[in-house]
Amino acid sequence: MYLETYSMEELMELIEEKGYCSVEAVEILKEMEQAKKEYDFLLRDCEEKAWKTDQVVVDYYRHLLEELRKALPYDAMGGQNTIPILVLQEFRKPDIVEKIRDFIGCQAGFSDHDLLQEIQKFMTVHLDPQGIILYMDVLGNQPVARNAYKQGGQMW
Questions:
Q1: Are residues 34 and 101 in the same domain?
Q2: Domain of life, per the record (predicted)?
């Protein structure tokens, strides 16, 4: 549950402190891989629409993208970079839970805490460009961790 609990900056500090071979780094990598698969599936517009926190967050994300694309020119002059930054900024606003609740039009049984955790995970895995950097950094250092383990070193 690292992705839902820690911000990107806190995750990067944790990995720097504990190391790429740590249990924490491996768990964060597993969580990111699983979350990427889940969000990729939801973003492909799957037909099954269950009122779960991940689906609600992804639907709101799609709504924001559509609204921004209507309001801003989306061309080769930088719109493809501006829109993701604006969406990320929107997801970081303190009233994001209320905005999502207004968007879905019902409470759907989610607590604010559950929704905030899902938002944090979605930002880390899908919106925050540092999330990709962290993922690739940890993934890139996995062979180093495996080699240290094979040569008799401690993996954890």
A1: no
A2: Bacteria
> Does residue 71 share a domain with residue 12?
no
Residue 74 to residue 81: CA distance in whole angstroms = 9
**From CA 88, how far away is CA 123, in angstroms rounded?**
7
Could you report the per-residue pLDDT of 20-63, keeping only the tens digit for each?
788 888 888 888 888 888 888 888 876 666 668 888 888 898 88
Q: Which residue has the higher pLDDT, 77 or 101?
A: 101
Say how far apart CA 89 and CA 44 lie, in whole Å. Answer: 23
Residue 101 has a pLDDT of 87
* Residue position matching structure tokens 């899908």: 126
The reply to whether 55 and 127 lie within a common domain is yes
Q: What is the mean pLDDT of the chain?
A: 76
Q: Are 65 and 33 contained in the same domain?
A: no
Q: Single out the residue of 22, 15, 99, 95 nearest to residue 56, CA to CA.
A: 99
pTM: 0.68
Please check whether residues 54 and 124 belong to one and the same domain. yes
Mean pLDDT: which of 4-8, 69-73, 135-139, 151-155 is highest?
Answer: 4-8
Backbone angles phi, psi at 112, to 5 degrees: -60, -40
- Domain limits at 7? 1-43
| Residue pair 22/145 in contact by the 8 Å Cβ criterion | no
